[in-house]
Amino acid sequence: MDYSAEERFIKNFIKKRYRERLLFELTTPQKRYDGLDRFCHQASELIDPVKIYLEGDDLDRRTEFKDFCKKHQGLCRVLSPEFYWEETEVPLDEAVEMAIMSLDAFLVLGDGFAIVFGEPVKGGREKFLVVENAGK
């Protein structure tokens, strides 16, 4: 199994002190589901705040997000505890639609960016767009 997308995501967007454990969890088949689940419940704590470009439970409805997506229409890798979407590669607009419809946590890994949709909970759903060069 090729875990290069997960390795890039962790190296570029996760706080240094959490990288080793999350890498172990996401690259160990027996731990992967729990790692994805834990990450998505603690995303705001694990993501390097310097890399956050946009965030908020209305992320997918914001003009800035839609403009970003129009400029980044390559294939993206999807990570999710939902087994039927896990590890698929689809165009960004399709991945975002899948994330919006999903009832679970959802990560979209693109070239130089990632989109994180937390698990829907009472009070909203955490959503982040993180980019390697977050300078707006």
Short summary:
The protein has 136 residues and is of the alpha+beta class.
- State the order of secondary-structure elements, H for helix, E for strand: HHHHEHEEHEEE
* Tally of helical segments: 6
Q: What is the CA–CA distance across the termini?
A: 35 Å
Query: By helix and strand content, what is the structural category?
Result: alpha+beta
Q: Give the number of DSSP strands.
A: 6
Q: Which residues sit in consecutive blocks of at least 5 with pLDDT less than 50? A: none
Kindly estimate the percentage of residues that lie in beta strands according to DSSP.
15-25%
Radius of gyration: 13 Å
In spatial order, strands of the major sheet run 1-6-5-4-2-3
Give helix % range: 40-55%
Described by the principal axes of the CA atoms, the overall outline is globular
- What average pLDDT do the residues reach? 89
Short key terms for the protein model shown above:
single chain; 136 residues; alpha+beta; six-stranded antiparallel beta sheet; 6 helices; 40% helix; globular
Q: Could you explain how this protein is built, in words?
A:
The model has no long low-confidence stretch (mean pLDDT 89). The chain contains six helices and six strands; from the N terminus they run H-H-H-H-E-H-E-E-H-E-E-E. It has helices spanning 4-13, 16-27, 32-41, 43-46, 63-71, 92-101, and strands at residues 52-55, 75-79, 89-91, 106-109, 113-117, 127-131. It is globular, with a radius of gyration of 13 Å. Helices cover 40% and strands 19% of the residues. The protein is of the alpha+beta class and 136 residues long. Strand 4 and strand 5 form a beta hairpin. Strands 1-6-5-4-2-3 form a six-stranded antiparallel β-sheet, with helices on both faces. The longest helix is centred in the N-terminal third of the chain and has 12 residues, at 16-27.
